[in-house]
Write a structure and sequence with these properties.
This protein has about 120 residues and is mostly beta strands. It has a single domain, classed as 6 Propeller (Neuraminidase). Helices cover about 0% and strands about 40% of the residues. It contains no helices and 10 strands. The protein has a 4-stranded antiparallel sheet, with no helix packed on it. Strand 1 and strand 2 form a beta hairpin. The protein is globular, with a radius of gyration of 14 Å. The mean pLDDT is about 85.
């Protein structure tokens, strides 16, 4: 398997996965050891994590609606993402092991690309 991330001479990073389905929106964990990203599971887009060397790919969300656009909390204990709730996109957080899913927003407009503040809020 090709690595999930490689660095170039200018210091930029390239996100690579080895499959025939698009993987999108990579986000570095604070430790720099894992990435979170969106990937199609055959039905819809879900949140995954993977080691930077390309191993230990884990599906974090598993439902019947699209999830993606992840961002790690500064302490690495939560991942925020946008998820479709059947009406529009809302913000959720989840543990890197897939546990403890929490809904953050609940309104009638799409909420995309959540990110964390400096203090993890």
């Amino acid at each position: 398997m090709r690595p999930a991330a490689t660095s170039t001479l200018d210091g930029s990073l390239t996100f690579e996965t080895d499959n025939t389905i698009g993987d999108f929106n990579p986000s570095w964990s604070p430790s720099g050891k894992r990435l979170s990203f969106d990937a199609y599971d055959g039905t819809d887009y879900e949140v995954y994590t993977i080691k930077v060397n390309g191993g230990d790919r884990r599906q974090i969300t598993d439902n019947t609606s699209d999830d993606g656009a992840t961002s790690w909390s500064p302490n690495g204990k939560r991942i925020s993402y946008s998820g479709y709730d059947g009406t529009d996109y809302e913000v959720f957080t989840i543990g890197p092991d897939g546990g403890g899913r929490k809904r953050v927003t609940d309104n009638t407009i799409d909420d995309f690309r959540p990110d964390w503040g400096v203090r993890g809020r």
